Structures are given as structure tokens and as C-alpha cells.
Amino acid sequence: MAIVEASASSALLAETGQSRLRGWLRYLELAFPVGLLVVIIGGCFLWPVIGSVPDPVGGNVLESNLPAFSEGHLLGTDPNGNDVWSRILYGGRSSLVVGVAVNVLGLLVGGTLGAVSAHVGGVLDAIIMRVLDVLIAFPSLVLTLAVAQSLGPSQTNTIFALAFFSVPAFARVARAATLRLREQPFMTAARLSGTSGWRMLFRHIAPNIIPQLVTFAMLGMGIIIVIEGALSFLGLGIPPPAPSWGNMISQGQQALSATPMLVVWPSVVLFLTVLAFNLLGETLRARWSGR
Description:
The protein is mainly α. The chain has nine helices and no strands. It has one domain (84-288): MetI-like (MetI-like fold), CATH 1.10.3720.10. This is ABC-type dipeptide/oligopeptide/nickel transport system, permease component. It is a multi-pass membrane protein. Residues 92-281 form the ABC transmembrane type-1 domain. Keywords: Cell membrane, Membrane, Transmembrane, Transmembrane helix, Transport.
């Protein structure tokens, strides 16, 4: 009898330990990306305000190519004498603003189009989806390069060029989610009670599809930041001397063999930011899908 009780006690302790471990893992899978984003976003937007950071442009060429941890320059300077740490912080502002603006525009415009298309159905649904299919059929990166080239390099033009091609993706996600909702009992009850179409759209559909759109936006943030970096790397994004992580990598690769850290520092921050957004998006997707 004692042996049985001891075995049951051991099994209970093991189960309790596993439950605590799963709880900690669930906490960490959300806390790690959120904490990383808080550090990166807080550093980019708050550090230059509350801390002593040199101007990102207009450096002294007599202090060019200083190594990391030089006096007054935490990560050294670039060939123009600009402080690398300062340019990473201000460049992060530019990259993050582009990522947020593109996803907000894509969510609002694409989400609205997709939800309205699925909810109304019929000819309107066919027209909207065929137009979006045409946009999706084109190689988006090539067209983004063409649009950015035609509009000219600037932060505003980069936002609109990337947002234009994010709309179809958000619209498809919103449409698929709305089509699933149409079959739910509460939607049938709302229709039978005489609720107007627009009221159903804003009261029942929008609150239920927003979590999926937000999750998609989190995953899209990393993609947009990488594409913005690629455009800036090619000289079609945010133009120098204004810093962005992409044009910092582009400028650094010109002297890669002599000063490789000019490429490494912005690349590491870019990687960590994309990683954090991807992990956060996957975590939100898993939790909101009821895993």
C-alpha cells in the first residue's frame, strides 16, 4: 500500500512539475519577444530623448572610423565621422515607422475590403477579389522596386509603395475569416433578428477578425522591415544622410573588409527586431487559435 501511495505521490509531483514548466514556457514565449521589442523600440524612440546621443548626421570627419567603445562613441563612427550608435537608434525610428505605417494602412484598407467583399458577396465580391488577384499575380517585390523608383526615394514614398502591395494580403485574410464567421450561429441569429448589414459588419464581424489581422500584421512587420532595408540598401528607400538600417548596411558594405562592424551592428539589430516580431506573431496566432 505504501508503495502505491509513493508511486501516486511521485506521479503527482511529476505532473505538477511539468505543469509549472509548461506555464513558464508559455510565459517566456510571450515575454521574450515583447521584452525584446520594448528594449528596441524604447531605445530607438526614448534613448535619444532622455540620454546623451550625438546627432546622427553632420559628424566630424577627423573622427572617422573610430572603433567601438571610443570616448563619446559607444559603437564607434562611420567614414563620415557620424556616431554609429546614434545612427542605429535614429535609423530604427525610420524602419519601425515604415513597418507600422505600412501594416496599419494594409490592415485598414485591405481588412475593410476583404470583410465587405465577403459580407456583401455577389458581384461586389467577384469584382474586388479579381482586382486583388491581379495585384497578387504580379511579382510584388519587382513592382515595389518599380514603384519606389518612379516615386523617388523618401520615407513617405516607401510607405505607400509597400502599403499598396500589402493590401491584397490583408484583404484575403479578412475575407477568409469573414466567410467562416458567416456560418456561425450568432451571425444567423443576428440576420434573423433584422440587424442591418453594416451593423453586423462593425458589431459582429470586425471584433472577431481583428485578432487574426493583428497577428498577420505582427508577422508582416518583420517582412516589411526587411523589404524596407532592401530598398534602402538599393538606394530606393530612405535616402542618405538620413539613417535607416538598410542604408547603413549599404554604406557599410562599401568598406566591408576594413570596417566590417559598420555592417554587423545594424544587421544584428535588424535581425533581432524581425525575430521578435515573428516570435510575437506566432505566439499570438497560436494562442488566439485556441492551442
